Structures are given as structure tokens and as C-alpha cells.
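Lab notebook, bench 4. Still working through the backlog of constructs that have no structural model yet. Next entry is a single chain of 185 residues. Request: give me the C-alpha cells for it.
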Amino acid sequence: MWPINELQNGDVYVADGFGKVVEGTLIGSNLGSGIAAHSHTGVVFDAGIRDVEENREIKDLNGFYRGSDPSAWKDMTLTAINAPIRIGRATVLPGDLVIAKQDGIIFIPASLASAAVASAEFTNLEDSFNFELNSSGKNGAEFEDGWTPAKYQAFAEWIDQHPETLKMTKQEFDSELARRRDHKD
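Model written out:
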């Protein structure tokens, strides 16, 4: 429980168990409920867990792990808290942004998190605009060459008509729009 007691609301418990599933099950339902109570998010554990059914029922606990097994944790020792670790092929540092989806997990360095979030939010807006164009049959001939200045202009006008879609400030949107329009990556 010592590392779990260090968790704050919004933290993600990330631990390296070297991919060990059998006898690598650090997290059962007691620790799962502790993680949920402290972080209200979840866990990324590069090993196995036990008590899968109980953990799935715990409110505010999402879990990404290698597998499950009823065995207890064996021949493993806690060596550090808030230290760099490896999860699969990724090096993870304390404070990194964790994005976990069904298809996988990525870790974004804290220093790049703000730019990554702004870029992802902008891409979601581009997708929403494209989906609307596709559903109305307008994404073909007029915008055949992809993201041209004309399409970016139509996109900016669409945002002006749908300001509720912005999860960023209009200034952040305009800045990202200018960067992409000018191809400044």
C-alpha cells in the first residue's frame, strides 16, 4: 500500500513487473480498490493481476495489464517509487502523460504534454469537420487535394459556426491552425 498511499487524484499507478503474469500478480482487488480510492483513474501494470472480476467492478478503476492469474506475487521486490521504469518498449518517467486506449498505451513526456494535447484536440476537430463534409458529400471534388488553404479556411469558418466543439481556447486553435496551414511542424 505504500506506493498507493502516495497517489493523488488524477494520478495513474504505473508499475513494471517485467511482464510476469504467473506469480507476478501484485494487484488484487484490495490494492485495486486502494488505487481507485486515491487516484480515481487506474493502473498500467506490466505484469499480471488477480481478482479480475472484482477489479472490473471497482468504480474509478481502469486497468491495463499483461494477463491474469490467481497466484500470489513471488520473487519480486519493490525497488523504487517515482523513478524511471520500462513498460514494454517505453521508458516512463514520473509525471508523464498516460494515454490508454483499448489498442494500446502511450506515454508522453511531461514537457511535451501540452503540445500533444493541443495537437490531438485539433486533429479531433479536423476529423469532426471531415466527418461532416463526408456525410454531406462535400469532401470530394472541392477538397480533392486534402488540407489546402481553401479547406483550412472552410474549417476555420466551420469552427466559427460551431464554437461549442472547441476544447481549447480560440487563440490556441488559431495558433495551431496557422502552424498547420503553414506546415510548421
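Notes after review: The chain has two domains: 2-108, 112-181. The longest helix spans residues 110-135. Flag for follow-up if needed.
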